[in-house]
């Protein structure tokens, strides 16, 4: 959790970071946040880690709410070869590895610095 916050704070891509919820206990770690990107878009992060369970979502959207890309591991796309990991982009559900904050920052950087 703290690695995510550190990466966001060290990146020059984000104007602000709003922590919505943070739980940092031995048995459960939860981080929900909203970060404003330089181009006016927003990155919403939801990470839940328990000993026996992990759930994540990195949701990047335009200022008007239109989805740019979302990576998550909700187990509802069983036909994806990287199940449960996948991404939503251009109205499609595509295979994806388990992303981390560094992967997401790199994608955002590549796309907004064109």
Question: Mind explaining what this structure looks like?
Answer:
The chain is of the alpha+beta class and 114 residues long. Helix content is 18%, strand content 46%. The chain has one domain. It contains two helices and seven strands; from the N terminus they run H-E-E-E-E-E-E-E-H.
Based on secondary structure, the structural category is: alpha+beta
Number of strands: 7
Domain count: the total is 1
H/I helix tally: 2
* Mean pLDDT over the residues: 95
Bin the strand percentage. over 45%
Radius of gyration: 14 Å
Kindly, what is the distance between the CA atoms of the first and last residues, rounded to a whole number of angstroms? 29 Å
Write the layout of secondary structure elements.
Elements: H1 2-10, E1 14-24, E2 28-37, E3 42-50, E4 53-61, E5 67-72, E6 86-89, E7 92-95, H2 101-112
Antiparallel strand pairs: 1-2, 2-3, 3-4, 4-5, 5-6, 6-7
List keywords for this structure.
7-stranded antiparallel sheet; 2 helices; globular; 46% strand; 114 residues; alpha+beta
Quick structural gist:
With 114 residues, this protein is α+β, with helices and mostly antiparallel strands.
